[in-house]
Amino acid sequence: MTNSKFTFLVLGGTGRTGKHFVSIALNAGHKVIALVRNPEKMDIQNPNLKVIKGTINDSYSIDELLNGVDFVVSMLGDARLQKLENVNTEFVKKLIPAMRRQKVKRFLYQAGGFSRPHKEKLPFMFWVLKQTMVRFSGLLGQHRDNEAVIKYLTEQANDIEWMVHRASIISDDASKGNLTRSKTKNSLATFVDCAAFNYQLLLDETAIHTCDLSYYAK
Ligand SMILES: NC(=O)c1ccc[n+]([C@@H]2O[C@H](COP(=O)([O-])OP(=O)(O)OC[C@H]3O[C@@H](n4cnc5c(N)ncnc54)[C@H](OP(=O)(O)O)[C@@H]3O)[C@@H](O)[C@H]2O)c1
Predict the structure, then answer these.
(1) pLDDT grade, residue 59 (50/70/90)?
(2) Which spans are transmembrane here (predicted)?
(3) Ligand 1 binding pocket includes 76 (Cβ within 6 Å)
(4) Which DSSP symbol is given to 1?
């Protein structure tokens, strides 16, 4: 699978993780379709990159966006809007039926380490940090939205090859190494390493229907 060339529909491609993901996919020779609110923020130029101006809230045809797509990747986030409503969940609830119609099977969603897997509890220290640091940073809404996406995928989308990366990210510094999937261990990673991990995860069949953390194994 790693030698094949694919088309990725990237949501959040101008974001801190998404911009690295777009570069990684293009550098590996794949095609990328990026739905972006602000095309001027997309500073990558590549014949294999198609930038479409729009937001996930627009009432355009998602089916058209999915034309010829192999993988859908969401690195979406808007903490201000997500405080008020589950915008990502509303979008994912439209995306998944469109993926079924267009026969696009695989979807990666980047959530956070503080986003709880469906019907599971966070480890005690994660819970404490979520009720303090995350709450005071104004990010509880983002995790509530991520958790609603995870619930929807788990309960209503098991025919889709979804995977959730519960990322922990600290900086936009250079790579600190390769991240590895884990149910229990996490590292404070860089955006570029999370993007590289997302790329590997998408091609990893053993990651289907997982909702794991990531850590630097060495
Ligand atoms: N940042 C962290 O430290 C961190 C840590 C762990 C997990 N995460 C999770 O990872 C995800 C991505 O994080 P990030 O920090 O890489 O994100 P980010 O830098 O905030 O970027 C978010 C991306 O989503 C796009 N976006 C937001 N609302 C949109 C809409 N309505 N329509 C279209 N595009 C929209 C943004 O577009 P614009 O460029 O136009 O704003 C941007 O490209 C989030 O869900 C977050 O929970 C983040």
Answers:
(1) confident
(2) none
(3) yes
(4) -
pTM above 0.90, yes or no: yes
- pLDDT value at 1 more than 80: no
CATH number of residue 43's parent domain? 3.40.50.720
In short, whether 74's Cβ falls inside 6 Å of ligand 1 is no
Structural domains counted in the chain: 1
- Please enumerate in sequence order all residues whose Cβ is within 8 A of that of 91, keeping only pairs 6 or more positions apart, or say none: 11, 56, 57, 76
Rounded-to-integer distance, Cα 160 and Cα 128, Å: 33
Q: Whole domain around residue 130: which residue ranges?
A: 7-216
pLDDT single digits (tens) 121-139: 999 999 999 999 999 999 9
For ligand 1, atom 3: residue with the closest CA: 169
Task: Say if 1 falls within a structural domain.
Answer: no
User: Does ligand 1 have an atom closer than 6 angstroms to the CB of 169?
Assistant: yes
Ligand 1 atom with minimal separation from the 18 CA: 16
Q: Note the helical H segments in 9-78.
A: 18-27, 62-65
